[in-house]
Design goal:
By secondary structure, this protein is α/β, with parallel strands linked by helices. It contains 19 helices and 14 strands.
């Protein structure tokens, strides 16, 4: 079968790693492969929040097996995302570098609220649409996501730092289950929920859907034990609560439908779900077949059809911060012209490079909403830490670095501290293009630029203008000469003719 219409999504969760491969046909997904492995990466963090060598070895071996299925698939048809444990791990960059080499595809660490958005997309696309609003709950290994939405559009999103692996580690470390530690675990989960519980209770919903392993496992137990006919009911949760206390230990749990792989983390996951039932006044949860990986897959297919939510996010930022759209468009068009002439020499030929430069050009003045002085630094901070739907941590770091480097002394130290090593050359080159585009439009003149000739010979970048144009624009000429001094530390010499 041709790989042209095959897409793959990989979810590196705190409890399990999942991969799905599907064939796309007129917007519909036809599942080809589904692989899941209990890696329990969340158990593999040491006291310093570093992934241990043992946990890393297990995780990389899993990715090596996944990679066999992906060998014939181009990079733009595969997306891998990392969640809570990789957000927490101090040595995540080192792990991701090794994982990239083994898997053959980049892994994006996504923020909690971005994870929530993608979970909702996966659930909404996998269900018959509800008429009104619906609540989606996903209890993962390291975090729990709550989303209220209508159709495929989320209205409210939250990501909370509690999941079945983390809760089991903290409250049931030896597998012992007793009234004291189960009560403490539920109270702890209620405290985490307390700041958001009211706003989710107040949003009227006609359906509650649960996604991922913990909810699926508990629902399977409830049906196998004949505690409810479908999904998970409030009464069934009370019966499971009693069964856990009666067992007193993970190893002695005698529940029909309980998978042995789920046994070590069942009590932690139950505590989170029980707290949710009580805090949100839930009576019934239905189980969804879709989750994060399906959401990643649908979004990936959308990008292949030029439906990129990141562009919508950029436009929303432009409106929110009242950015001068005419100036942004001028800078964008010139930056893309320069990229076209330099992309082969500088190996910037991918769609990612074009997109990143385009978005940075449109948002280069976003920091003006704070202050004119140092607006490039303010803009970088906003883009690095804002909640930007569609953007991974990796994307936001690049975007922030480009905006940070748009003017003044080239911030090589900032690049070293904020970017992965493999990004330095790529982002440096895109930054130089963006700096030149902004410089050429500094006068905010609506007159189009003249025809430019751009050549690169080793480390010498030549910018050629029509006869007498520089003499007629002495300010631009002077700024270009000054720019040569500012980018020398990048080992690039700017020649203006």
């Amino acid at each position: 079968m041709s790989a042209a219409n095959l897409f793959a999504a990989i979810d590196l969760g705190s409890n399990s790693f999942h991969m799905i491969v599907a064939r796309e046909d007129d917007g519909y997904l036809h599942l080809q492969d589904r692989i899941s492995e209990n890696v329990r990466l969340g158990n593999g963090l040491d006291e310093h929040n570093n992934i241990t060598p043992e946990a890393e070895s297990i995780a990389l071996a899993c990715l090596a097996r996944f990679s066999q299925r992906l060998r014939e698939m181009p990079s733009h048809q595969v997306r891998a995302v990392g969640t809570n444990t990789l957000r927490r791990a101090n040595n995540a960059h080192e792990f991701l570098r090794k994982a990239h080499q083994i898997l053959g595809h980049r892994i994006d660490i996504i923020a909690g609220r971005e994870e929530a958005r993608l979970i909702y997309l996966g659930v909404a696309k996998s269900q018959t649409p509800a008429k009104g609003q619906q609540l989606v709950i996903d209890i993962g290994g390291g975090s729990t996501e709550l989303i209220v939405g209508q159709g495929i559009t989320p209205v409210q999103r939250e990501s909370l730092s509690m999941g079945c692996v983390v809760m089991s580690q903290q409250h049931f470390p030896e597998g012992v289950i007793n009234p004291k530690n189960l009560r403490k675990a539920i109270i702890y989960a209620r405290l985490i929920l307390r700041p958001v519980a009211r706003q989710f209770r107040d949003l009227e919903t006609e359906l509650t859907l649960g996604a991922s392993g913990t909810i699926k496992a508990i629902a399977h137990i409830c049906q196998a034990m004949n505690w409810c006919e479908h999904g998970i009911s409030n009464a069934a949760m009370d019966k499971l609560h009693h069964a856990l206390l009666k067992a007193s230990h993970n190893d002695t749990l005698k529940l029909k439908g309980l998978n042995n792989k789920r046994r070590p983390v069942l009590a932690g996951g139950f505590a989170v779900l029980y707290a949710l039932f009580k805090a949100l006044h839930l009576q019934q949860i239905e189980v969804s077949s879709g989750a994060l990986r399906e959401g990643v897959l649908y979004e990936l297919i959308g990008r292949s059809h030029h439906e990129d939510v990141r562009q919508n996010t950029v436009q929303a930022l432009i409106r929110l911060h009242n950015i001068d759209t005419q100036q942004a468009q001028r800078v964008k068009e010139t930056a893309l012209r320069l990229l076209t002439m330099l992309k082969e020499s500088w190996q910037l030929e991918g769609e990612d490079e074009k997109n990143m430069l385009s978005w940075a050009a449109q948002l280069h003045e976003v920091g003006l909403v704070i202050a004119h002085a140092g607006h490039h630094k303010h803009g970088a901070y906003l883009l690095n830490f804002a909640d930007l739907p569609g953007f991974s941590h990796f994307d936001q770091q690049q975007l922030a670095a480009l905006v940070r480097a748009q003017r003044g002394k080239f911030p090589l130290k900032y690049f070293i501290e904020s970017l992965a090593d493999e990004l330095h050359n790529r982002v440096t080159r895109l930054s130089i293009i963006l700096r030149l585009a902004i410089l050429l439009h500094r006068g905010r003149n609506q007159q189009p630029l003249p025809f430019l000739i751009v050549k690169l010979t080793q480390n010498e970048l030549t910018l050629g203008f029509p006869q007498d144009w520089l003499a007629q624009h002495p300010l631009t000429h002077t700024e270009l000469q000054r720019e040569n001094e500012l980018i020398k530390q990048c080992h690039i010499r700017l020649v203006v003719t």
